[in-house]
Amino acid sequence: MHKKLYKAGKVWVAMAVVTATAILGANTASAESTNSAQTSGNQAAYAAANSSENTSGSTAVQSGSDTTSSSQNAVSTSSSNAQSANQNVNVQDNQQAAGKSARDVALDKYASQHVSGYIYSPDVSTANGGYNWFENGQLFTGFRYYMGTYYWFVDGVRQNAGWRQAWGMTYYTDDNGRAVQGHRNINGQDFYFGNDGTYYLRSSGYLYDGSSQNGGYRWYENGKLFTGFRYYMGTFYWFVDGVRQNAGWRQAWGMTYYTDDNGRAVQGTRIIDGRLYDFGNDNSYYSRPVNGYVWDGSSQNGGYRWYDNGNLYTGFKYYMGTFYWFIDGVRQNAGWRQAWGMTYYTDDQGRAVQGRRWIDGGQYFFGTNNSFFLRTNKYVADNDGVYFAGGDGRFLTGSQNIYGRSVSFFGDGRLNTDGLDINFPHWSLNQGALGAPEGCEGVSFQMALSAKGKRVPSLQEIYNRIGYGDGVSPYQGFNGNPFGGARPYTTTVLAAPLAAKLNNAFGVQTEDITGAGPNEILAQLLSYNPVISYIPWDFQVGAGRDHFHVQMIYGYRNGGFLVADPLQYARGANYWISTGEWWYLNSHLQPVGFGAPASQNVAVI
């Protein structure tokens, strides 16, 4: 052993410091087998250190003295020191008599001496041969570097094998309490603690470290206990200080997540604390607003309700091909509904109805174009007939005067067309004479404006508004030059862009009514609206030649339409055509070079 001086009061005392191989190493028993002379020498040194005064000379033992000389030096103190030591013993006896244990008395003694190091102190603990680590008189817990490595102490007692946390790192000590390094297999798992004298764990993953939770496993990242999500065994788990958590809300990557009772991040829809949440189904796991018709366990409609951006929704939602009406997420049944400034009706399944419907003894019309709203104060039509919906939407019956024209309706609301005669005064115009051999659409629009009593602009004005050119798609404007010659393929503008470009221009509105049958055309004429209709110039349809042409319908008589032809060729400037023939031609006409919808028509309102 070697000795180290420390000061106790006014006296320097030699303190024995035993080498690591004798005390901290594997041969711990050698420290316990130290001869009695050494023990008595140490005890004498401690007794001298407790003397309150020592003025009769130094008791320091020279370094290198053997055990016997150490004992002799310690014993050969001055008579005054011996007397002081005896007094100190009396003090200890008094403290013990006052109720303090021998261990507490010893701890008080070391505290007053501010001792530091690996001190022989069997009166504090007999573990490891009676040696304990003190720091400034206090039993120490943590690592201390000694004799070339780190040892782990708890309340001064050197520990053996186990995991340790210090300085924000994780360490492992072997059976002798020494911090390990290099590769180690611990309980069947491989760990790496570096080889640079730093000793801390470098490994990552779900590692067994003997902790008290989750069977002793914790998650490490580069040797540090990890907090956050980690992907493991096919899903994400949430860890706090390495410990896998159970059910709860989690914040990560700017998103919100929820983990189940096993700590796994959930996905899909989940009811948590009585509220529905959506965590996706794409392995992203984060919470997002609930949308759609989803099961939340409610008491109606089989537990399904409609959510919109996380909130129970009131209003119409499109679902499975139609609109349904919801109140606080619950699908409603039959009833009148108000939405978007319109009136609707839902059937017993909550679906918005369309077409003609008998409701509470009256007939109503909700359109046939998937718009579903109630029509009021207008002529309406379906394949069975033409009707007039009054101010409340109910069909009129009997004799009526509508828009200044006397008409009559059957008991079911259908218009009686017997004797009906509609014939709008209009200009008859010839597209060739107007310098527009391909401009039948513009000339038909001019004639419709004249029938509406509006100013008739030039064809150049009209086509400038529509837009034309070789690079213009017929789905966007006029493809080609309306003022030029014919080409191998059709030069035209289709009904939808024609209505869109001319709407609210030149004092009128234009509506694309593509798909209209004879009854809807008649309903437009009854409303004083001429119709631009796509009718073949030669009244032929099919492949082999370009039949495409546009004309204007301006009247009705005896089951047929009155038509003004801007080409003024096959049947003259104005002619009569049965509604059946018109319907066939209109629904089968196709351009050359590209496809087009059937039954193209534009109402000029």
TrEMBL record:
InterPro entries attached to this UniProt entry: KxYKxGKxW (IPR022263), Peptidase_C39-like (IPR039564)
Database matches in Pfam families: KxYKxGKxW_sig (PF19258), Peptidase_C39_2 (PF13529)
Region ranges (Disordered): 44-87
Bias (Low complexity): 67-87
Organism: Fructobacillus durionis
Gene3D superfamilies to which the protein is assigned, alphabetical: Cholin Binding, Cysteine proteinases
Protein name: KxYKxGKxW signal peptide containing protein
Keyword Ion transport part of the UniProt annotation: no
Signal peptide per UniProt: 1-31
Peptidase C39-like domain segment(s): 436-566
UniProtKB keywords: Signal
Compositionally biased region (Polar residues): 49-66
NCBIfam families per UniProt: KxYKxGKxW
